[in-house]
Sequence to fold (55 residues):
Amino acid sequence: MPVHPICHRTIHANFTNAQLARIGDDPARLKENEAVAKFLAWIADKPPDFHAPTR
Fold:
């Protein structure tokens, strides 16, 4: 499934590749992470072409 670059960076900022391999392609499991959930709430009202730096 395609992932927007800013979302991709956020996911990798919060999970190791090994963790992502265990999670698989279940977005609900990603959303259980507090930082990811906070990011998703923040990005929800942004336009599809929105870009911002991530830490």
In short: The mean pLDDT is 91. The chain has one domain: 5-43.
